[in-house]
Amino acid sequence: MDNPSLADRASSRVDDGRDIFDAPIRDALLRLGYLSEDQTARVAAHQAERGLDFDQAALELGFITTDDLDQARDQLINSMALQDVRRRAVSAELVVLSDPSSVRAESIRLLRTQIIAQHIRSGRRGLAFVSAVDGTGCSFLAANLAASLSQVGIKTLLIDANMRAPRIDQFFGLEPGAAGLSSFLSLQVARPERVVNANVLPSLSVMTAGPPVTRPQELLSGNRFRDGANMLLREYDLVIFDTPPSSTNADALTIGAAAGYALLVARRDHSYFSDVQTLVSQLAAARCPVIGSVLNEY
């Protein structure tokens, strides 16, 4: 099935949604860091002088690009869905929604830019978030990156593949233990999309870990997991897998091999360099290239 390009989808969203929100585009451009306060004042002056809309004045001055403007408009469109999101008791840890002006949220947006440029635009559709030890913030980064990607219209699926200690449901206010990955792997449902929570945010779907199971490694090691992952990789711009730490089991290696690529997460003053080195070597042996690493300082 032919899929429209990211650019085509972004263009259609802007055409359809140009006039449907009241929130000023100026604030969105400021939040995303595309305009400084000084530039904003200069745009306002140019706007008044030329009788232009704010966004057109910013473009005319060369302070923003059309891509910047598309992303700001997408964020405004996405904000219309936040009332429903809040009803589901979304965690405050989802900082790209709860505290979008924070340093942490800005760090996530920087990571998003790098992932789009270096990973998604290269045609890579899978990415496993892996860590050597517990407590690195792996789930935090996976959930926030997924939400951040959805804000710019990247069709994203977030899979909680940590069936030992799942957390993704908590970020999005989803029912713990509801049908999810383990349900598909244990043959309770026929196809993986049956246990996907579609449009948890605009452009973001989530598959939770599912009901507890006693032998997650056995389920992950079967062909059903790899085949299901391949099916989903064809349907999304990016599929993000959250994984358990590698120090206690081999789940992350199996998941990384199915995803095709891994992003390594470590925490300052918490992760040992030797453990990280070991994980990188193990992933290489599993034919899962590490595309980069994140040193979490929060």
Can you give me a brief rundown of this structure?
Keywords: ATP-binding, Nucleotide-binding. By secondary structure, the chain is of the alpha/beta class. The chain has helices spanning 6-17, 25-31, 37-50, 54-61, 66-79, 82-87, 95-98, 103-118, 138-151, 168-172, 181-185, 216-221, 223-233, 251-259, 273-285; strands spanning 126-130, 156-160, 197-201, 204-207, 238-242, 262-267, 290-296.
Description:
The protein is an alpha/beta fold and 298 residues long. The chain has two domains: 6-80, no CATH class; 91-296, 3-Layer(aba) Sandwich (Rossmann fold). It is built from 15 helices and seven strands. The chain has helices spanning 6-17, 25-31, 37-50, 54-61, 66-79, 82-87, 95-98, 103-118, 138-151, 168-172, 181-185, 216-221, 223-233, 251-259, 273-285; strands spanning 126-130, 156-160, 197-201, 204-207, 238-242, 262-267, 290-296. Strands 3-4-2-5-1-6-7 form a seven-stranded mixed sheet, with helices on both faces. Strand 3 (197-201) and strand 4 form a beta hairpin. The relative contact order is 0.13. The model is unreliable at 1-23 (pLDDT under 50).
